[in-house]
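Reading a protein record of the kind used here takes only a little practice. An example makes this concrete, so a full record is given next.
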Amino acid sequence: MALPDPASTSTALVTGASSGIGEQLARALAARGHHVTLVARRAERLERLAAELHDAAVIPTDLADSTARDALAAAVDGGGRAVEVLVNSAGLGVYEPFYRSSRERELEQVRVLAEAPMDLTHRWLPGMVERRSGAIINVSSVSGFQALPYNAGYAAAKSYLLLLSEALHAEVGEFGVTVTAVCPGPVPTEFQATNDAAFAEKLPKAVWVSAERVAEDALQGAECEARVVVPGGPIVGAAFSANRYAPRGLALAISKRIMAS
C-alpha cells in the first residue's frame, strides 16, 4: 500500500494538528501505529493531544514564518526520525471582498495555505523519493475547484495546492511515493467561526462531512494512491466535482451569489 508502514525510525508530520481535520488525521495515523509529529501554533492544544496519543512529538510553529519553518525542519531532522508521511492541513481563510480585506491577512493566508505546504513538501519529498517510500496528503478544498468572489485569495491558494499535488502525484508515483490532494466541502469545525465563514451555513446539510470522515477518506485515498479525494462519498463528490469543469462565467455567477453575505 502507498501509505508507509509505521516504523521506529519514521514519523508522520501533521500540520494544523491542534483542531479540526488536522487533529483527526493525527489521531487516525496514531491509531494505525505511526509516531506523529504535531505542528500548529497553539502549543497547549498540541500538548493535550500528544498526551492522548501513544507516541507523539510536539513542535509549536507559526507556519507563516519562514524562519519558524527552518526551526521546525531542524528539530524534525535532528530527532532521528525520517518524515515518511507528511500531512499539510494547517489553514485559515479570508471571507470578504478582496479590496476591503487586510493586506497582511491576505499575505498570511497565502503563506499558510500555499507557501508553507510547498516549502515542507520540498524539504521532505526528496528523502521519500530516495527511500522509495512515502506519502504526502495535502488538504486542499472544493473551493479550489473554481474562482470564488469574496473568498478570492483562499480559493486561489487552495487551487495552487490542488494543482501542485496533482503534478507531484504524476512526478513521483514511479518512485513509490504518493501525493494526494484532499478536497473537503464544508466540515463542522471551529474553522467557520474562527474565520467568519458564515456563507457555509447556506450549503445543504447533505454535503457537510465530519472531520473524522475527512481523515478516514484521506488516509484510504493515500493507501489507494489516489490523486484527488473529495471526502464524504458519491453525493458529496457529485455536488462539488462538476465545479472543476463548469463554464467559468456560469461558475463565477453562481459562486458570487452563494458567497455574498
